[in-house]
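Exercise: predict the fold of this chain.
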Amino acid sequence: MLDIERIRKEPEWLDNGLKKRGIEPISGEILRLDAERRNLQTRIQQAQSKRNDLSKQIGEIKKSGGNADAVMAEVAALKDQIANDEAVELKFADDLNTILASYPNIPADDVPVGKDENDNKEVSKVGDQTKFQFNDIKDHVTLGELNKQIDFATAAKLSGARFVVLKNKITRMERALAQLMLDTHTEEFGYIEVSPPLMVLDNAMYGTGQLPKFKEDLFQTTTGHWLIPTAEVSLTNFVSDMIIDPKELPMRFTAYTPCFRSEAGSAGKDTRGMIRQHQFYKVEMVSITTPEQSDEEHERMTKAAETILQKLKLPYRKILLCTGDMGFAARKTYDLEVWIPSQNTYREISSCSNCGDFQARRMKARYKPEGSKNTEFVHTLNGSGLAVGRTLVAVMENYQQADGSIKVPDVLVPYMNGVTVIK
């Protein structure tokens, strides 16, 4: 959520930031609603004070034997005025809150300005694009069907489009990848492994920015719960409505969960294979920090995700997203894109974002700096470490052999009970 206090002091901060995202200025409307609300609050306070004074007068008049009818009538009129003003003030507050919650985060100063993915900035490239000693390069769908370990037909019979059934060693490799990720993040980077709820309430979805803007991209149960589109929702909301001891920061959590997305805005995109599905597995990382820690934590989190790709010896590149391609809640985002041979291109496999205090304002997540009487909002960060299904796709395609078999990356062999080739 946007910072109303900063907008009051620096309306140009908001308008310039939104302009970078291609959004028209809105500070004028926000300041108008804010002024109307504050004027009403002042009027309500003045009326309450006058009512209190008149109430005291009524007692004094009656004590002296006088007639207090006129004063009592004035008190009654003030009571009605206060009730009406409070209702209008509440409407202004709701309208203001709706606007502040519906606009995206303001980009960090070093985020490149651009319209879409074509304006993103490549930061680094690691590893050479895979070269094969044969010409018949297969995609993961063909490889899985050749080995009879990926079954889209059965998945479609059970659930429709954008689902998959994995079998045998491919299933084992999916689990092995997740285990490698969790072991790396917990043992090398100090994340606490968590098994969180997969269904959450409205306030959790609102806290991380999925609601109300992205309602159509979510799945909701008949009980009113929402299926999480990412474990970011559960993990980040651990600190909602809390005042955290600064000695506990930074907090770092990781979780391996299924994720559920309706993909409402992706009709016709990636209809073949496992790149874009309604249900998929992901290892998520979330950090809660002070404002001073968040930039360094963002680099650290991205490094944790990169470490998985390096251990798997998969070629990838690191991209700094431009303002037009960045997520709603992010102030700065790095994408990691892995090389997919069958598509002859890099595809996103991780997105690591620093959200600043944007989510914390929605969640009311604060901490009290040492020596300060006031609380401040924490900063929240989240990142894929990694999307397990896409990592499986990348391993299958980059490690394919001429006969359609799949070599198991060395780092996964211990997790695969010694299996070195899937065939």
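Check your answer against the key: DSSP finds twelve helices and 18 strands in the chain.
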